[in-house]
Amino acid sequence: MHRLRIKVYYEDTDAGGVVYYANYLRYLERARAEFLLEHGINVAELHNAGYCFPVVHVDIDYKQPARLGDAIEVTTEIEEIRNASITIKNQIFRDNTLLVHAYVKLACIDREGRPRRFPEDFMKIKGDT
Description:
Layout: E1 2-7, H1 23-38, H2 43-48, E2 55-62, E3 71-81, E4 85-94, E5 97-107, H3 120-128
Antiparallel strand pairs: 1-3, 2-5, 3-4, 4-5
């Protein structure tokens, strides 16, 4: 399981000092990119090689809010890998309090939008986690 610590800044919050709900998706994206890099997968290089990884489904439960100044931690792990899709499980915590629980499903497509197999490096991740 990968862990990414993030500090909540003013720009992340609404007028009440609570993290704006859509910003959690940014945190998940950042954590996913770092998780992949930790496993030797550089999404920018793959993008340049013609791979695209659009988010096709998000299931997210907001349990409690994060607030201005909080230090939060995003955990990332693989839930399922198929030939042309991957489902990632994320959780966001403040200390030991669960704030957000999410599943994010990504597809693997080419530049024309046709499904393609994930690169072999992705298939190795599940065994590493």
